[in-house]
């Protein structure tokens, strides 16, 4: 992701960010810079577990450094709203090893 290529079209939309340390942070993209540092509003972290449902921890306004971002994805808000996160089970993501 050099220079935030393609992020312009996602401003003011809900996105999902997977960080290098395996976190999944969801929020509304408010801005980014040439180093792909991003600003998310109304954000929360989704914590996955094989024993409990998906925990959602509210973060609010949140900045993620570009060098800690592995994947940025667009979210289908209608599909996402229909998911029952309390019933989902998954292994937590492992950190990215370079």
Overview of the molecule:
With 98 residues, this protein is mainly beta. The chain has a single domain (13-87), classed as SH3 type barrels. It has one helix at 77-81, and strands at residues 14-19, 24-32, 38-47, 55-64, 69-74. The protein has a five-stranded antiparallel beta sheet with strand order 4-3-2-1-5, with no helix packed on it. A hairpin with a 4-residue loop joins strand 1 (14-19) and strand 2. The model has no long low-confidence stretch (mean pLDDT 91). Belongs to the snRNP Sm proteins family.
For the sheet with most strands, the description reads: 5 strands, antiparallel
Total domains: 1
Classify the fold: give the CATH topology. Answer: SH3 type barrels
The residue-averaged pLDDT reads 91
GO molecular function: mRNA binding
Pfam families: LSM
Family: Belongs to the snRNP Sm proteins family.
InterPro entries: Lsm8, LSM_dom_sf, PTHR15588, Sm, Sm_dom_euk/arc
Compact summary:
By secondary structure, the protein is mainly beta. 5% of the residues lie in helices and 42% in strands. A hairpin with a 7-residue loop joins strand 3 and strand 4 (55-64).
Helix-strand blueprint:
Layout: E1 14-19, E2 24-32, E3 38-47, E4 55-64, E5 69-74, H1 77-81
Antiparallel strand pairs: 1-2, 1-5, 2-3, 3-4
